[in-house]
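task queued by scheduler; priority normal; single chain, no ligands, no partner chains; default sampling; output format set to C-alpha cells
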Amino acid sequence: MISSSSNSIEYLLGILYSNDLFLEMPVIYLWFIPTLFLTEIAFYVLRKYIKDDYKLFLTIVLLGIIGYVNSLSPYTFNGIWHFETVFISILFYYAGYMFRKYMFKFKKIFDSKSKSFIIGLLLIAVGIFTMYNNNYVSLYVNSYGSLVLFIISSFSTILATIIFTRLLFKKDYVFKVIGKNS
C-alpha cells in the first residue's frame, strides 16, 4: 500500500515538474504539451509588449540564439516543463504566426499546381539533405545539432507538408479538421 501511494505522489510530481532531470511525466511523450503552453504564453507576452514586427523578429531570433547556446553548454538548464525548449520552439510559433499573417502573399504559389508540386519536391529534397547532414536533433533533450541545418530542415519540410496537403485535399480541409480536433 505504501508503494502505491508513493507512486501516485511521484506521478503527480512528475506531471507538475515534467522534466526528466528529477521527475518525468508518467506518459513520456506528453512532455510537449506544457512546453507548447509555455511557448504560447511567452509569445503572447512578447506580442503584447512588442507591436513592431521587425522588433518582434529580432527578439525571437535573439531568444532562439539564447536557446541554442544553452543547448551547447555542458551546464545546460533543465527547467520545469522543459522551459529551456521554449527558446527554440518560439521560433516555430513565430513562423506560423507570420505565415498566417502574410499567407495571402503566397497565394500565387498555390494557384499553380505544377509550380506547387515542383516547389514541394525541392523543399523535401532540401529538408532530407539538411536532415542527414545534421547531428542528432531532439527538442526533448534540448539537442539541435547545427542550428542552421536544423532550421533549414525543419522549415523546408514544414512548408513542403503544407504545399502537398493543399495539393492533395480540397482547400484547407485537413487543416480545419486538425484545428477543430486538437
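post-processing summary
- Confidence is low (pLDDT under 50) at residues 1-5.
- DSSP finds eight helices and no strands in the chain.
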